[in-house]
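CHAIN AND CONFORMATION:

***
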Amino acid sequence: MTDPRTTVVVITHNRRPELLRTLDRLAQLPEEPEVIVVDNASTDSTADAVARHHPSVRLLRPGRNLGAVGRNLAVREVCTPYVAFCDDDSWWAPGSLSGAADLLDRHPALATVTARILVEPEGTEDPITEELRNSPVPGPRWLTGPALGSFLAAATVLRADAFRAAGGFHPRLWLGGEEELLAADLAAAGWWLVYADHLTIHHHPSRVRDATLRRAHGIRNTLWFTWLRRPARPALRRTAHLARSVPRDLVSVRAFAEAAAALPWVVRERRVLPRAAEARLRALEEAQRHSSARRYVG
């Protein structure tokens, strides 16, 4: 069942045990994908451990923590038509990479395929899966599953050329809800995003994470995306909703302040989405407003 169509890209920072577990799982896949690891300046000997335990893995060491942009660095090296992202605490189920590649082969207007997420060690569905399954975004008849307005990087296989043409992940966003801007730019270019319920990725959440920093970046990046791509009225409406809905604490205040401080840059780079792409986002807003799960962003 070896399948040469997809390369797996993993970014990591100071999570050596989790990364080695993920690489062990990926090495057992029947597809035998090429794997590229971007070590975002770990200080726990991650790179040495990868070289020692998984010598066939291609290891990139940028020398600093690039966040999500580490994926851009890896995709430049990808020679396969498709690239699958996963985090250092997640791994693809056997057959899922081939299943996603089959969908991308079959539908040339499809840019991303997002899988259902099982949370380990219990093997229960992540609550966001139900929202993906019931996405309200309207899609063309040929689409094999629910159309999406965004995607979750750690559970998605992408068309590598589409990723590159859209510019990959924006370096300003770093990490935390960074997918929404890229997803919107893919939609603006005419690409479709889909959820595939028959594909699976496993996520064993790492205990080594700064949840406070991730929340701050998620709020900031949501604001930046909204101001960069949404028309004035929806942008104001979403900004107001976010101000009402985030926790009223110092983390949120700092996130709003950091976002506002970048307004000169936002104004320079602002490019409103075409009507069709904006319509997909409007279809999502009501569902996101009442979400009890992790949101598509932040």
